[in-house]
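so my prof wants the structure for this chain in the tokens format not the other one, which i didnt know existed until like an hour ago. anyway here's the sequence
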Amino acid sequence: QVQLVESGGGLVQAGGSLRLSCAASGRTFGTYTMGWFRQAPGKEREFVAAVLWSGGAYYADSVKGRFTISKDNAKNTMYLQMNSLKPEDTAVYYCAAGRVGWSKVSDRPQYDYWGQGTQVTVSS
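here's what i got, hopefully its the right format
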């Protein structure tokens, strides 16, 4: 029903920037909540940011002020602009989608669809 493909990951120096993209297909894209999660080795997959179908955005405390989530419904694409990157941002970043209410945006089980992940590595 919904297919997600991430791109834009890579190696960047601390303090630099990356822009991740999530290309989506499916008739329900415009009405779904879209989110970004990340997972470092040995760690649980954690919430990063989400944007509701209405446009409301939510961020984990660790990325507030540095990351910006956005979407372009006409292009069926979601973005994560990451600025002032830190080594602790190193992780595999996953795009997710689901019918998720504002109070549940950080809960992984609420999302029904996931991309394959893209590696982000931040060096000192």
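also thought this was worth mentioning. The mean pLDDT is 94.
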